[in-house]
Amino acid sequence: MYGKKELSGPWLLRGSDGQRGGVKTFHLQETDEAKWMEASVPGEVHLELIKRGLIGEPTEGLNALAGRWVEENLWGYRTTFAAPDEAVAGHAWLVFEGLDYDAKIYLNEELVGGHDNFFRPCKLDVTGKLRRDNLLVVVLNGGLHAAGNRSVEGYYENSYDHVLHKRIWLRKPQCSFGWDWSARYVNVGIHKSAFLEWTDRARVDDIVVLADVNEAMDEGTVSVRVFAEGCGANPGMAEVTVRVSGRSETEQANEGCETQTCRPESELVKGGGEARTCCGETVRTFELAEGMKRLDAEVPVPKPRLWWPSGHGEPHLYEVTVQVRVGGELVCERVKRTGFRRLAVNQSPHPAGGRCFILEVNGKPIFAKGANFIPADMIFVRADRARYEGLIDRALEANFNFLRVWGGGVYETDDFYEACGERGIMVWQDFAFACAAYPTTDPAFMRNVKLEAVHNVRRLAHHPSLVMYCGNNENEWHTHRWDEDESEGIMYPDHAFYHHVLPRIVREEDPGRYYQPSSPYSPDALFPNDDSAGDQHPWSVGFDNTDFREYRGLTSRFPNEGGILGPTSLPAMHASMPEGQRHVLSFAWQQHDNALDSWFPLSAPDRQVREWTGLEARELSVEEYVYYGGLIQGEGLREYIDNFRRRMFDSASAIFWMFNDCWPSTRSWTIVDYFLNRTPSFYPVKRAFQPVSVVVVRESDHVRVFGINETDASWRGELHCGFFTLGGTYATDRRLAAEVPPNRSVCLAEFGAAEWDASGIRDTLAFARLMRDGETVARNRLMLPRFAEMNWLPVDVDVRRDGEYAVFRSDRFVWGACIDLNGDAPLPDNFFDVWPGLEHRIAWPRERELPRILYVGNAIKARQAEQNHNS
Question: Which residues are in the Mannosidase Ig/CBM-like domain (predicted)?
Fold first, then answer.
């Protein structure tokens, strides 16, 4: 008989600072329950303390600093439970799906096991240790105690607090120890479910579902791997049933037992036992033995409907139900959704040298559009399905089809992957290693991370949204630099793990999925961040150097990190700073600011504002900073995206740093903040990623206009291009027939830049727009000087209603018109230009009050004058 008892729910919780609290007695039956507080499992210690008002919400003001004592304490969770006679007499296991961190588990005052990995479950055999009535105690801490006596000397690490937290030894999200975009907030607790299992025959440890499709994409196969543990000398027979649903009614109607894929009669199969397959269902029998065994079953799916990325087709999903019976008793049932697609990374030689790096789905080259995804909350357990769906919806709104899950965070949850699968978002998943050299020369550490990798690859393998694995973030790049510096220390402690161990695990557990050792990584023994091959992190722009005009010359094959800092939404800025501190550079501002502000003797983010606008950031109000800082960030990200999209497929991605925030920030890399509000840079990114787009570039003495068409059909219309002045004169005004082939970027027009130089680059912009049936489909423009150097003129914008539209018009060029700083509601457009004499129309319901322009970029001249007067 198999049984399972949930142990999640109300528990008791108590903390100890080592002196007060009595951690040595936490596990004893005799205790003073008045000193314990009620707690929830799953849960997290900070959350319990917040509920009771003992610490403040860490995302607000300075509360993250005030709550830091929690990570230094030891914590005990305590509960009692009754075990049935079958569990007491049979084989039994305690299972904790998630423990954080360095846990010791006591059953009836006996230490029955320990666990030190956030990323994989803890499963303890407690056969013979159960009673009818049981006391279960888990004693844990944030990990600092466990790492305290570990050495970090000789290991690469780039933060000065490493000697305090020694994060490389702790298998938990590395960003919880602080990153440039996140406060240090070391989580602790039982963060996933807990339960008791028992059996007299067998239990199922894991079920893995793999979907594959042949090269012709007309025959799919669902392969199921059941990892079952037999108990005793004669566990008996197991029956595995796999059922695939999700086919259309027509497909099911056309399938009958007379088809070639249906084998209703039982047959002997390789590996022992019998199998019968009929109409999308397979049943296999296996003879179990004592110990763990893998049971394999397959279901053919003829003419499967394919899973496609967003913008390229339907992300079709199939539902796979797996049932395992032992001795006729149902011991496990799992339902997983998967999809059929062929994945390849084309790294063939590139005509210009090096190699391509093109993601191909179902034989079609796909340009990857998106950003890096970091943990959705600084308290990881708070990221629920609704939050993930909100984030993925924002990604779709911004015209994404790709997210890279960065290695300093987590192996993302099933909620995240399911939301991406349903919406057609492709995902790159780093293994959880970032910006460090890890001690895999330590045997216990190596065993730990190998188990972690196996668990997570098995867990994620069925998700069609997962398109690639990567061993780590930037470790190979930093190792390369470290080697060149001839630094003393352990030179390559983890090289074999990324280059030999992880690829073997991926090949065995998720065959066919692309893997690379690190990001960035270049094959052929090239420098890891070489532009000519592999993937790139183009950080030559973004830190000390914020001249994002330099993006225009980058030729990276697959850029997947690179960005520009900017402010979050106005509500997020206010949440970062309590009343009395709501001004630039207040103490609270600094705590919520990006640490890049401290990387150089003087603030590079402040200098970014000054160099681009001529304004002093510290003399701006918070509202003004949100506008001007956001205007700059949006322009920088647009330049990044435009450059790589117009090179499609010499460059095959435009993936920037980063998409989301884990707490409210004053300055961040993101386009969606902690409250899921759209930051000022959201709309420029959305426009730059739209399926049909246009880009204007100057190369030497020529201006070129590129049309980009991501759709499956040729785009035909009219190109309107030339030069106009800030004052409203169209110095050159051309109209040409235009055609852009499907899934291509092509040069539509080219003309000399002499007219531009003659008109004065500080007074004139190059422009291009694609039109069809008199409507603007896409538009873009190019400025050569920094914005502060342009000869801006004051403008008067007319805003009127035309049916279901708001219409904006000006005789002069209007740069960066802002109608909202909150970002909490979707808008048709924001931070947009109004071109001289041309209407800019956005959908606007009749019942809604006409939008009001809050700021325009042209006003920087007047604001400069005001700052100069005040100084």
Answer: 702-782
